[in-house]
Amino acid sequence: MAVDTTERREALARLDVLVGEWVVEAEFPGLEAPPQGRCVFEWGLDGAFLVQRMEAPNPAPDSMAIIAVDPETGGYTQHYYDSRGVVRLYAMTFTDGVWQLLRERPDFSPLAFRQRFVGEVGEGGDVIRGAWERAEVDAAAPWERDFVMTYRRSGA
């Protein structure tokens, strides 16, 4: 089932709530005050892709991601790149204000662990509260919190 142009545009339009500049706080275990970073989401290539650029709060790496609509399924894919040289491919959903990224199989690098982010959009679209989690490769292994991440729209 291929996705037509209208369905693709509608899927991309659902991501419009992310567009803009954000202050990002990351709560890492063992750190007292959450360090802050900066994130910008903007449309690229005439709105064909959503581009995310992150100046991450230390100790996280700076990163860039490109979000696309899969032409076959209509789902989202996030292509992730960071300052360590890490490249990953996440399956992504964005439904009813819940943003989820999931990596459960090898892609450009071996899968040393499964990884996911689940965030909820709140406060009129000005805050996204979520957490990164990780689990062993075994599908039965439980998810464990890696760190909490909060996006706050700049100027909100």
Structure notes:
The protein has one helix at 5-13, and strands at residues 20-27, 36-44, 49-55, 63-69, 76-82, 87-95, 98-103, 114-122, 127-135, 144-153. It is mostly beta strands and 156 residues long. It has one domain: Calycin beta-barrel core domain (Lipocalin, Beta Barrel), CATH 2.40.128. Strands 1-2-3-4-5-6-7-8-9-10 form a 10-stranded antiparallel barrel. The N and C termini lie far apart (41 Å). The mean pLDDT is 91. This is DUF1579 domain-containing protein.
CATH fold-type name:
Lipocalin
Strand order of the largest sheet: 1-2-3-4-5-6-7-8-9-10
Give the CA-CA distance, first to last residue: 41 Å
Q: What does the average pLDDT come to?
A: 91
Please state the second-level CATH architecture: Beta Barrel
N-to-C series of helices and strands: HEEEEEEEEEE
Q: Strand portion, in percent?
A: over 45%
What class do helices, strands and sheet pairing give? mainly beta
CATH classification class: Mainly Beta
Helical region count? 1
- Poorly predicted runs of 5 or more residues: none
Structural domains: how many = 1
Shape descriptor = globular
Number-wise, the strands total 10
- CATH homology superfamily name: Calycin beta-barrel core domain
Q: What is the radius of gyration computed over CA atoms, rounded to a whole number of angstroms?
A: 16 Å
Query: Helicity level, as a percent range?
Result: under 10%
Largest sheet: 10 strands, antiparallel, barrel
Organism: Streptomyces cylindrosporus
Protein name: DUF1579 domain-containing protein
